[in-house]
Amino acid sequence: MRRDRLTIGLVFMLPLIQLLLFGYAVQTEVKHIPTVVFDQSMSDESRSLLDTFAASGYFDVHYAVNSYQAVNDMIDSGKAKVGIIFPPEYEKEVKRGGSAQVQVLVDASDNMVANQAMATASSIGMLKSQQVIAAKLHMDMNQLPYDIRVRAWYNPDGITAYYMVPGILGIIVTMSMVMMTSMSLVREREKGTLEQLIVTPVKSFELMIGKIIPYIFLGYIQITVALLVGVLAFGVPIRGSLLELYLLTLFFITASLGLGIMVSNLAKTQMQAFQMSFFLMLPSIMLSGFLFPRDAMPKIIYYLSYVIPLTYYLDIIRGIVLKGIGFSYLIGQVVSLLIFSIVFLIISILKFQKKIV
């Protein structure tokens, strides 16, 4: 590996680049949505509501137009994602005490932006309605009929990096361990150096262990680098025990390495090993709960995600880093990863023995 500068570069640069790229770029909370306004009322009431939209931080009013068609054109062109339209009688309806309607058009071609915009717009409308009702009834807003108080645990500010960075760390370890292990063994087979090891007295399981141990250390190096970046660059809190995190990570690393060795036994060339490893990465990213909640998946896909090691490691690392829980809460995940490690390594050793014969 010291002679392979590309491998060494990947070991250190891969976690840095991926963490910085995904940590800054991937945001589930969408703010500063470009907004166009068609205000036919031009009143204090419409400006007050518009100021509330702008003050929320979710809507940036960049454009003011004079027709419905202009609003449609702005949304069609992509210059604006949201259009707010005030009718001419808006001020009259507000002062009369009627239901003053405001139309909010949302470009739903981007589902994440659309959901955020619709939820925030509805919340702003409800808040303004409560203020008007309270003013008419001379009520104290702190003494509304229903006092529902919501408290968010573990990530009260909803910071995306706190949720994403631990998941990215699991993706980095999976990608590195599976790809590097599978391709390194295939590369040795192509160069003929693996056959030189086969003719030595070294047993097959000893050879497999010898191939795994160096990558375990590399995996820990990547995890350490990724945690440092997460804490220093994104301020991710580590509420649990680092010792427990490192100990439980061992099971995930061995499971990923076992999967990589199994791929190397099936692949004939480095290109095949790369393609097979990449094929295994897609389900890990899509189905493990890294990007999408598993509870929202169809039942058959939900149960299929149980055969992905990353599914269990995400529970471990997010549980320790964000929740501060320990081994007693994560026994099921650890046992599952241990089973994966044993099964993958046994299959790899048996497959390797057949190739020796």
> Which regions are unreliable across 5 or more consecutive residues at pLDDT < 50?
144-148
Residue share in helices? 55-70%
Q: Count of DSSP helices?
A: 13
How many E-type strands? 4
Number of domains: 2
* Overall residue-averaged pLDDT value: 82
Please report the distance between the alpha carbons of the first and last residues: 28 Å
Alpha-beta content class: alpha/beta
Q: How is the main sheet built? A: 4 strands, mixed
Helix and strand succession?
Answer: HEHEHEHEHHHHHHHHH
Strand content: 5-15%
The rough form would be described as elongated
Global Rg:
28 Å
Give the spatial strand order of the biggest sheet.
2-1-3-4
Description:
With 357 residues, the chain is an alpha/beta fold. The protein folds into 2 domains: 5-25 and 160-356, no CATH class; 33-143, abc type-2 transporter like domain (abc type-2 transporter like fold, 3-Layer(aba) Sandwich), CATH 3.40.1710.10. Helix content is 66%, strand content 6%. It is built from 13 helices and 4 strands. The chain has helices at 5-25, 44-55, 68-77, 90-96, 111-137, 160-191, 193-198, 204-234, 242-266, 270-287, 299-304, 309-323, 331-356, and strands spanning 33-39, 59-64, 82-86, 103-106. A 4-stranded mixed sheet has the order 2-1-3-4, sandwiched between helices. It is elongated, with a radius of gyration of 28 Å. The model is unreliable at 144-148 (pLDDT under 50).
SSE layout and pairing:
Blueprint: H1 5-25, E1 33-39, H2 44-55, E2 59-64, H3 68-77, E3 82-86, H4 90-96, E4 103-106, H5 111-137, H6 160-191, H7 193-198, H8 204-234, H9 242-266, H10 270-287, H11 299-304, H12 309-323, H13 331-356
